[in-house]
Amino acid sequence: MFNLQLLKYAFLAAVIAMFLPLPIMQYVAEESYYALGAYEIFVDGHWWYQSVFGLPWPKTPLYNWLIIGVAQVIGWQQLEIATRLVTVSASLGSAAVVFFMAHRLFPQQQTTPWLAALIYLTMGEITFWYGWLGYADATFGFFIFAAISSLWIAIEDEQVKWLLLSLVLISLAFLTKNVSCYVMYGSAGLVLLWRYKQWHLLLKPLYVLPVLVSFSLPWMYQNLILAGGANASVAIGDAMRNFLGYSLFKYISHWVSYPLLFLGRAFPVTLILIWLYLKEKQRYVLSRDLVTMLYILLICLLPFWLSAAGTPRYLIPFYGLLALVVTGLTLQLNIRQSALVFKVIIIVILIKIPYSFAALPYIKDWRPERDIRAVVEDIMQITDGKTLRTKNDVSTGLSIGCYINVRTPHDQFVHWYDGKEHQVYILSEVEDPKLGELVKQWRLQGNHTYLYWQP
């Protein structure tokens, strides 16, 4: 139904399109937080936790380690590109897992793995935003998706080696972001044990003991590596903020919109399948494997769905499974409908070109008061090598710090102002005469940046 050569060419085009925005954009939102963390880990040598402007922040560091590795190869001057290269690599890794699982779940056609990987890479959330943006979520999602896929094989085929691989992968997920990965992994495991009636595996020491050892990693990290640090409490606090202090209307609005957001941001194929169901009365048959994936998606999404403020970033680990479900439904279409799916996928790939080179830079960089690099040039010219400190930790302040750090000696990177130093310049996000003489101010991406001289 799908031409193998055309699928391969389209997949290659989708891969190339993933790299298009990388050298064009300045730092976007929290990208600079991860970049700054990587730089400070490398410079200060505190390899097991991040810091922001010299202040310790108990976040797991694997994503930063990967950024450091790439920055060492392409140069620290290209730190924003290094950060995004890690994300794109993770997205391509997820596409590879989709390819592998599609080959296992749908072995009837040679074209199916290529179709599944193509569907994943052209999902709107992946190709246009979080699939290339320099956040930890795509890497976090890759490790979770790969861990759940390996666990699937371990349970269905009763192979310990796949269990061990899945435990290594979920441990890497924890080291990338936080403990929430274990909730998703455990939830998926319970669904798989139930669906394949493999409860007896819970009585086998070869299955249970490695799981217990692996699940102790967060405790060891917090109590042995961080010496009682607050990594777990930070993750729990972040999660609770999505539940507390919201009105009933906000909850109901989120409950209605979140599944629609999940499907909508996975366009175009999800929307085509829904349109065919509604307009052409296309009916889909759900096989046992498709139902299993839907159950996994439901139980993993439930904590974010029940909250009042779960963001689209939380959905990234689930797009690999959704791509497999969408692939299984697409295989049930007729020739005309399949051709429509392929044409729309090609259109999405083509749209990525003007989106990367014109639309996105215009929205984020080229509009008035959005040029971070211009402000950095101004600051560096004014400070002229003198000591610079900061009290600005909003996204623009972090971005300014990143750009300045990679252009100054490592031992002079921007630190947080402790209120005691004199003869220093100080960046601030708010107007504060106590910081000294106001030298200049800028309006940047909706925020104000003030430069003071502390005599």
Overall structural domain count: 2
| Tally of DSSP β-strands | 7
Considering DSSP H and I runs of 4 or more, what fraction of the residues is helical?
55-70%
Unreliably modeled segments: none
One letter per element, helices H and strands E, the order comes to HHEEHHHHHHHHHHHHHHHHEHEEEE
Shape: globular
> What is the mean pLDDT?
91
Instruction: Compute the number of helices.
Output: 19
Radius of gyration: 24 Å
Give the percentage of residues in beta strands.
5-15%
- Tell me the span between the first and last alpha carbons: 74 Å
Structural category is alpha/beta
Descriptive notes:
The protein has 455 residues and is of the alpha/beta class. The protein has 2 domains: 4-359, no CATH class; 372-454, no CATH class. Helix content is 62%, strand content 7%. It contains 19 helices and 7 strands. The chain has helices at 4-18, 31-44, 62-74, 79-105, 112-121, 124-128, 137-157, 160-176, 180-195, 205-215, 217-225, 231-240, 248-264, 269-279, 288-306, 319-330, 335-366, 372-383, 395-405; strands at residues 50-52, 55-57, 388-391, 415-416, 424-428, 437-444, 447-454. Strand 6 and strand 7 (447-454) form a beta hairpin. The longest helix is centred in the last third of the chain and has 32 residues, at 335-366. The mean pLDDT is 91.
